[in-house]
Amino acid sequence: MVFMTLPPEAASLSLDEVLRIDREHLWHPYARLGGGPAPLVVREAHGTRLVLADGRELVDAMSSWWAAVHGYRHPALDAAAAAQLRSMSHVMFGGLTHEPAARLGALLVQTTGMDTVFFCDSGSVAVEVAVKTALQYQRAAGSPGRRKLLTPRGGYYGDTFTPMSLCDPVGGMHSQWTGVLAEQVFAPEPPRTSGPAWDEEVRRIAAEHSHELAAVIVEPVVQGAGGMRMYDPRCLVTLREVADEHGLLLIFDEIATGFGRTGELFAAEHGAGVRPDIMCVGKALTGGYLTLAAVLGRRGIAEAINETGAGALLHGPTFMANPLACGVAVASVELLLASDWRGEVARIEQALARGLGPLRQAEGVRDVRVLGAIGVVQLDRPVDVARATATAVRHGVWLRPFRDLVYTMPPYIASDSDLELVCAAIRAVTAEEGSSVG
């Protein structure tokens, strides 16, 4: 069979055509169709750099929403993708299996200490599957009335319906869906320093609602898109004890924090010694090459579901365990584990602390916090995103602030000079935003 292809020049679009199509037809995250400033057109990416259509290069201080931890066009990941394409890019996982899924599953079991692996398409879907697993487990245990989850305020778990219901209903971005979403049970935000007040309140709420709770879900140590808050790992000990006391499953959402971002391989390892019953991972899993997530669990959960009720976990994405994504994920995880990722993340943490720490005394700054390869400047007012982005671009950096936060989560390969540029850009944005009147 002969496949006809267009020559590259015939298939390409001009910059004006790209922007016209984008403006007239393409939705962007949390944006109006065709509204706001025109997006920057990226022509290619390499290392830590985004190359724009006009030739400018920007340091990507966001790791493409925290996923591209190895940077762009990494030879090992490019080679893994090319090799997998030569055998198969996709095959259904219903009734079939393959080596990339087996290798990735074994790696995840080894690195997390969990027992079972459910592959899915994205972080939000992983949370959906985790919650569904908890509900099925409680049904299997003879408690079908346990349908709600306990979660601290300030969290963010995704944009599909069940994850939206777990996001903070007051300060979160999904407040307009109140009355449509399932109602969950919320505890206070976990504090920077754990103490008896928070501990007692969480225990009180759990005891009051234990008859209707199926699980506890939390982002360990760092709450991501809900506000980039960092809190005392001892809070996880309290949540583990609460779950055990009331027969609940404990779910850790490590989608943003997993694979070294906080300075430990997984955020739950920050001195708490707490093991969850279910763990969600994603984002950095494939190094930002392809969308893939996984829900990891204890064997006892699967055995309980196997033996009663439906006898199966009732979820099955079309692209579950996609071989191309699994093959790249194996290469990404192996690349990370073989590197001095801990040393590199510590180097980034030190650079961010040096570069952002002085902003604690700056006008308009409420807080500065750094952990691992995460640096956050919280202002005392909402950020003008368009203005802040333009300022960062003038300084050669791609940032994407939100709400009152100017933050960075750079690739682990970011050089010292990259980090200096990132910090300089954040300082410039902060100076402009902090001195503005609105």
TrEMBL record:
The record marks Y30 as: Participates in the substrate recognition with KAPA and in a stacking interaction with the adenine ring of SAM. InterPro entries: Aminotrans_3, Aminotrans_3_PPA_site, BioA, PyrdxlP-dep_Trfase, PyrdxlP-dep_Trfase_major, PyrdxlP-dep_Trfase_small. It is found in: Cytoplasm. It is an enzyme of class 2 (transferase). The modification N6-(pyridoxal phosphate)lysine is found at K283. It catalyses: (8S)-8-amino-7-oxononanoate + S-adenosyl-L-methionine = S-adenosyl-4-methylsulfanyl-2-oxobutanoate + (7R,8S)-7,8-diammoniononanoate. GO terms for biological process: biotin biosynthetic process. GO terms for molecular function: adenosylmethionine-8-amino-7-oxononanoate transaminase activity; pyridoxal phosphate binding. Coiled coil: none annotated. Its EC number is 2.6.1.62. SUPFAM superfamilies: PLP-dependent transferases. Its cofactor is pyridoxal 5'-phosphate. Homodimer. NCBIfam families: bioA, PRK05964.1. Belongs to the class-III pyridoxal-phosphate-dependent aminotransferase family. BioA subfamily. This is Adenosylmethionine-8-amino-7-oxononanoate aminotransferase. The gene is bioA.
